Amino acid sequence: MNPTTTSVPGLLLPIADLPPSFKWGVATSSYQIEGAAAEDGRTPSIWDTFCRVPGAVTGGDNGDVACDHYHRMPQDVALIKSLGVDTYRFSVAWPRVQPGGRGPANRAGLAFYDRLTDELLAAGVDPWVTLYHWDLPQELEDAGGWPHRDTAYRFADYAMLVFDKLSDRVDNWTTLNEPWCSAWLGYYVGVHAPGRRDFGDAIAAVHHLLLGHGLATERMRAAATREMKFGITLNMGTADPATDTPADREAARRADGMGLRIYLDPLRKGEYPADMVADLAARGTAFPVREGDLEVIAAPFDVLGVNYYFGQDFSGTDEQGNTHEADGTPVVRPILPAGPRTAMNWPITPERFTDLLVRLHRDYPGLPMVITENGAAFDDSADDDGNVADEGRTAYLAEHIAAVAAARERGADVRGYFAWSLMDNFEWAEGYAKRFGIVHVDYATQARTPKRSALWYRDMISRVRGN
Ligand code: FCB
């Protein structure tokens, strides 16, 4: 069957099996769309600073204007409504709500999210709040950032400012988006803000991000006056050994440990995985755990947000056959599976999405999942009216939603799906060069035009609802 069709009768069969109660949404994040970087009291985040570092972001782009969503929010909500989704996942900009990362709320900044929440509810769209999608106030980075323990407490205080304002209307709360990216890309690889390159800092950041999640979850739950859903979103893939050699199996173990288990084991089992603790000790470092931290991190939560883009294989040798890097660390070399790629050069691996969800259900049972991000960048070409016939993206979405349906048939408790992203936006280190939207944005005019994938998504949702 041709998954690229936009006609409803062409719905992939497993998608058609999804229940009417399945929740559909679109997702964005604050720094990627809002713009208005210096308005109404907002102070710089680590991304505002990082974008000024020469060479850090493709094209020297930054989020000063982005999609100008801060000024166009009512029209954007109308656009969301037109897609027929149940829910919209957005993030709150910490430096807008609490400039500098400490002290009282900035009323003008909070008021924006207050209006957004009201606008969504009036449109019949459920707001889904992510508290942290990477825009740490610069002052907190200057004080040490996520490797510094105090940042976890600052995060919980900030979370309560948002919670106090919106919890009379918002039911779904995600603490962190993709702590792996914050810690690994931000503090070790250095390709994301704040651009540090220190392995020990990255490990400390992991622990303090998880601690911040736990502290915020405990406080929000204690303050909740009705049933609410709290959760965290992790980005995950699959890490398979490239071959069956011991070196490749070892590399896959390490990759899976660093990418997935050092997050989910403490969150769900209250302990860091012993093999990873041993690996870190061999590298002369450790998670900076203090007494009671793991109980806080393992505080119960209600929904695991899963962000999935692709899966990959790992080899324990480099291209010359060496098993260790020059600095003595073991080689963990990602190998992208053969086959088609997106504009990010990411492989298209929907079958591994099913594998991941089934594995999560098996290894971390009893936790409902929602796909909080899934989508693809392609080099779209728009006609003069902004129309984009994005067959590649439509196929990607259809195949991955079908993969979710297949995982459900195998027992995985997945209850919803958010397409990444509502509209083209600032794609971090790639700037505006990579387009993930199902709605096209003409950055010169800020015109929004639904792409063919958006129309397919809308029609598919309405068909599944009728089941
Ligand atoms: C995820 C991020 C999201 C977006 C997509 C493509 O890692 O959470 O903001 O950039 O990747």
What does this molecule look like?
- The chain has 467 residues and is α/β, with parallel strands linked by helices.
- The protein has one domain (12-465): Glycosidases (TIM Barrel, Alpha-Beta Barrel), CATH 3.20.20.
- It has helices spanning 13-16, 30-33, 46-51, 69-82, 94-97, 107-122, 138-142, 150-166, 179-189, 199-223, 246-269, 274-282, 293-297, 350-363, 391-409, 452-465; strands at 23-27, 87-91, 126-132, 172-177, 229-235, 239-241, 303-307, 312-315, 333-335, 369-373, 414-420, 439-442, 447-450.
- The longest helix has 25 residues, at 199-223.
Task: For the structure shown, list the relevant keywords.
alpha/beta, 467 residues, 16 helices, binds beta-D-fucopyranose, single chain, 14% strand, TIM Barrel, eight-stranded parallel barrel, three-stranded mixed β-sheet, disordered N terminus, globular
